[in-house]
Amino acid sequence: MSVSGILDDRRPPAPPGWAGFVSRRRGLTSLAGREILRVLKLWTQTVAAPVMASFLFILVFGLSLSGRIRHVDGFDYREFIVPGLITMAMVQAAYTNNASSVFQARFDRYLNDVLASPMRNWEINLGLSLGGVVRALLIGAALLLLALPITHVPINQPLVLAAGVALGLTLFASLGVVIGIYAKTWDHAGFVQNILIVPLSFLGGVFYSVSTLPSPWREVSHANPIFYLVQAVRYGFLGTSDVPVGIALAITGALAALTVSWSAWLFHSGHKLKP
Amino acid sequence: MSSDPALSLRGLTKRYDGGLLALDGFDLEIPDGEFFGLLGPNGAGKTTLISAVCNLIRITAGEIDIFGHPHRDPEARRMLGLAEQDVNLDRFLDVEETLVYHGGYYGMSRADAVRRAGEMMDVFDLRAKAGVRAPSLSGGMRRRLLLARALMHEPRLVILDEPTAGVDFELRIELWRYIRRLHEEGTTILLTTHYLEEAEELCQDVALIRGGRLLARDSPAGLLDSFEADSLADVYVKAMATA
After folding, report:
1. Which residues of B touch A105 (CB under 8 A)?
2. Domain interval for residue B225
3. Rounded (5°) CA angle A29-A127-A16
4. What pairing do the DSSP bridges indicate for beta strands B188-192 and B7-15?
5. Angle CA(B107)–CA(B124)–CA(B136) in degrees, nearest 5?
6. Is A9 at the interface with chain B, CB within 8 A?
7. Are A116 and B178 inside 8 Å of each other by CB?
8. The pLDDT value given to residue A9
9. Which pTM value belongs to this model?
10. What is the mean pLDDT of chain B?
11. Do B154 and A274 touch (CB under 8 A)?
């Protein structure tokens, strides 16, 4: 048996067409697979814990307050809060997963194994992002399954829901990769989560309709980027939102384009990744 | 053997953001199939040179070709294997997964990667630890896994950055055996080491560097002649004194 393997037959060239494209993307599928495997290996931490936390919000706030707050925008309060809570859990998971995975890979330097490989920069960027996306989708699906029997939340606009979720996950998965690259300590990655994402999520109309707020808080809420994502997802579920859904999707999409461009530039230039 | 050199550096310069000039117009050519040693004190630029070749740092100036391909091309990257000085194994993966995923990063199909990982675990006596995660392995096992990972995708040029640093005598002899066998099978090897006897024992050609510059390069016998020295250690001391 050869140590080097170079005396063995060389691997055949990639076939033409779609099969060739797929075979040339093996690096990407392997890296994405590694990120997903990490999520699954740590499932109690990465999936079960956030599902439980968000489900408790639905139970405690939805069931206890729905006796006092009868209807918001024509829906039972317990139904009204589900889209926002699912959104909040998903974007936090997408961000946290990628920030911690990328930071850990840099900290332990096993990212070098990926950076030295023949993968293209965009493949590395995408592969690292997909772990957070899958984790968020698992959490979102689990929460929906748990929430449906007790809230009967409808899905009135599935295409809008799919678009809102896709744009939101793109935005926060890329932001996680970016922060994972910039972070010098675990605290840096946690800081963005605790000081920015969590407060903006709570103030983004998850638990209330922004249209009920007095001025100037209503206007201030419109400066919160997560507000638009919550509105897009709520429209997908309930068919109602505080702003026109086109605007909500456009603003979320613009922010997603910004973070994707930022992470793409980091991988292209090597800034912060390569001394 | 290829007509292109395994590694060609032309005017390679690296200045870090803090201003440190780690490599200063470095030229080097390593023929296909050679066992090449790179010696120098800490801070000489050895790891910077390796990082530049492996696309792990941004170079300031110069060109790097691997078997005739610019070093950033996927084709060049596929022909290169690296075992870094520090153990940088993925803490979430076990031994077999470490090898299989690495194979995937380098474009191997899942079936080929699983087959090759099995071979590597047999060669490096890691089979019994196939399901053990890297942090739970002994130091010696981690070193062997690093080497197995570097060879997983069947590279034609293997860079070993101080592969025996901090390992006990028995493991060092064992690693020498693996590395010799690798070279006998036709792989080009670039080895950095602080152990001069290691370079003398293994390398066909040795370069001495300091301050990011090449001081001397020849076969161990040639260096002994030109420095009128009795041992490579003597050559090293004389070369560094004149730098």
Report:
1. 90
2. 1-79+156-168+189-243
3. 40
4. unpaired
5. 90
6. no
7. no
8. 45
9. 0.91
10. 93
11. no
Judge whether B179 lies within some domain.
no
Q: Specify the DSSP element, H or E, that contains B206.
A: strand B205-210
- Structural domain contains residue B85: no
Q: pLDDT band at residue B2, thresholds of 50, 70 and 90?
A: low
**What is the mean pLDDT of the segment spanning A210-230?**
89
Tens digit of pLDDT for each residue in A96-154?
A: 999 999 999 999 999 999 999 999 999 999 999 999 999 999 999 999 999 999 999 99
Among A27, A38, A42, whose Cβ lies nearest the Cβ of B107? Answer: A27
Whether A199 contacts A127, CB under 8 Å: no
CATH number at residue B236: 3.40.50.300
- Tell me the C-alpha distance between A165 and B15, whole Å: 44
Task: With CB atoms and an 8 Å threshold, state whether B104 touches A33.
Answer: yes
Q: How confident is the model at residue A230 (pLDDT cuts 50, 70, 90)?
A: very high
Is some CB atom of chain B closer than 8 A to the CB atom of A15? no
Asked if A236 contacts A164 with a C-beta cutoff of 8 angstroms, the reply is: yes
> How many domains does chain B contain in total?
1
Q: Helices in B27-138 by DSSP H: which ranges?
A: 46-53, 74-78, 95-105, 110-123
Mutation target for B interface from A1, A2, A3: give the one with most B CBs within 10 A.
Answer: A3
Domain membership flag for residue B94: no
Quick one: pLDDT band at residue A13, thresholds 50, 70, 90?
A: low
The full set of domain ranges for chain A reads 17-269
pLDDT of residue A65: 76
Q: Do A117 and B88 touch (CB under 8 A)?
A: no
Give mean pLDDT, residues B213-233: 92
- Pick A1's closest partner by Cβ from B89, B119, B154: B119
**What ipTM was predicted for this assembly?**
0.92
User: Does A29 contact B182 at a Cβ distance shorter than 8 Å?
Assistant: no
B43: in domain: yes
